[in-house]
Amino acid sequence: MQLQSNSEFKTSPQLLDKLKEVGITKNFKEGDVILDEDAYIKSIPIVITGSIKVMRSDDDGREILLYYIKAGESCIMSFLGGMHQDRSKVRAIAEEDSEILFIPIEKVSLLISEHPAWLDYIFRLYHKRFEELLDVVNSIAFKKMDERLLNLIKKKSEMNGSKQINVTHEQLANELGTARVVISRLLKQMEDEGLVKLARNKLTLTN
After folding, report:
1. What is residue 3's predicted lDDT score, i.e. its pLDDT?
2. Best CA proximity match to 205, nearest among 140, 155, 141
């Protein structure tokens, strides 16, 4: 486990040791559901390697991407829900093969009282997630779907460290809360404009 490599934890080796002591590490494959909607939250996930996407669905089953959780980060919505013994309002899915450290809810209060760095970490994550959620709202309200799609592709490329992205049209549609046929049409338009190159279940950014 390499939490030490993440700048969030460098200043608190005591907190690192405590997290390793109380946490449980699990591995997930790409596409695995880590936390489902309406499930009770029993632990707080911290991503060691890989990444997680956090989704929200409506009563009709339509989904939208809220944010990604990268290595060294946690899910603030799991933290808040767990502290209030609430059920999850989101679904967390492994964006790629991931290793995750789970901190039991019953240990969270102890960590807060004994390690101020833990509370500081939570507050910084809360601030970051709040800004990301504002970006989602602004994007839905003010940006056209083609711009939202291109931004999502660029974000995936940045996270993967590669211009080539393994993703289906259906997956992109789900993350943007729209229909697959809309995404297919926009991707073909982007290919005609020289922005992407399409292949089966993958695409490549060309600029």
Report:
1. 53
2. 155
User: What pLDDT score does 1 carry?
Assistant: 47
- CA pair distance 129, 50, nearest whole angstrom: 18
Kindly calculate the radius of gyration of the chain based on its CA atoms and give it in whole angstroms. 18
Tell me the backbone φ, ψ of residue 178, rounded to 5 degrees: -135, -175
How far from 195 is each of 42, 97, 175, CA to CA, in Å? 43, 28, 20
C-alpha angle with apex 154: 186 to 123, nearest 5 degrees? Answer: 125
Q: Which residues of the chain have pLDDT under 50?
A: 1, 4-11
What DSSP character marks residue 193?
T
Taking the C-alpha atoms of 27, 176, 75 and 37 in order, what is their torsion angle to the nearest 10 degrees? -80
Q: pTM of the entire structure?
A: 0.76
Instruction: In whole angstroms, give the CA distance from residue 141 to residue 124.
Output: 26
Beta bridge partners of 68: 53
Domains of the chain: 3-141 (2.60.120.10), 144-205 (1.10.10.10)
Cα dihedral: 168, 171, 172, 174 (round 10):
150
Dihedral angle computed from the Cα positions of residues 39, 54, 95 and 99, in that order, rounded to the nearest 10 degrees: -60
pLDDT one-digit tens code per residue, 3-22: 544 444 444 677 888 888 89
